[in-house]
Amino acid sequence: MDQVKIIEIKKSVFEDNNKDADALRQELKSRGVFLLNLMSSPGSGKTTTLIRTINLLKGRMGIAVMEADIDSDVDAIKIKDATGIQSIQLHTGGMCHLDAEMTRQGLQGLELEGIDLAILENVGNLVCPAEFDTGAVRNAMILSVPEGDDKPLKYPLMFSVCDVVVINKTDVLPFFDFDLEKCREYIRMRNPNAQVFPICAKTGEGVDAFAAWIEAQVNDWKQ
Amino acid sequence: MHELGIVFYIIRDVKKVAQENGVQHINAVVMNIGEVSTIVPEYLTDCWRWAADKEDLLRGCELKVNTLPAVSYCEDCKCEYETVRYGKTCPACGSENTFLLKGNEVEIKEIEV
Fold first, then answer.
1. What is the pTM of this model?
2. How far is A68 from chain B (nearest CA, A)?
3. What is the ipTM of this complex?
4. CATH superfamily of domain region A21-222
């Protein structure tokens, strides 16, 4: 029988991706491009929120969007039709998240000349995208009212990696047992530094505050 | 699905190590998985079987999982406690000013060749 030899590795599975992500952030910094990673469950209103936000910001900065999905290009077309900005679709080939290398490939598909803000709409999922740093400068996530105010308790990692939590579909608050204050408290437990923006993407209510946050972040990054 | 993505990362890493060490076949990969890493060990080993058998280097290779306990620290009373049992609240003083010390590892410990 062959002798068993042990090779010690002792390395985090995420280590390579974290390095790729840091390198990508450095490159984006030198090109003056701010990358925002937007995450959420499927159906929380990411695309509708983006359209509202982009329409508020597009006169003030160059914006491009990458839509990541397992299949289809409906989101990329929807964004392009509703805002007129550059929008491409990335297919993850069955994977439930994007990593830094996939994000880099996506950025290569964009014309970045004149772009100040690139937005990555990650795959709809509250688990995997939180574990893989995409190289984005900031992470934002959308939690919609019908999903429930207890989500920060159930998906702690997602809420702890986000700089911003957008609470969408506030127009249906009267019909759901969603306690906005309790939700804020749960988010604070996971991440005391996260900013919370309640919005209704359908009517546009509150979206200006989220857009102003993005604009300030972009200006900071470009200094 | 989440575990499958992790499996692809493990395969990429051990392939690299095998290449660097001139290894032709790996018999086992040993993982350290923290209790609160959000990885389900059974799903991980199921995905592993499916993906590893597609590679010559890893055909029949076993994925062994060591589970590491999760420990939290209370900043108010400076004590350490079991995270899974007590969660965010310190069992000694009731404070929520606590953080995870260890238990979210997803680490390749070693390979057996």
1. 0.86
2. 16
3. 0.84
4. P-loop containing nucleotide triphosphate hydrolases (3.40.50.300)
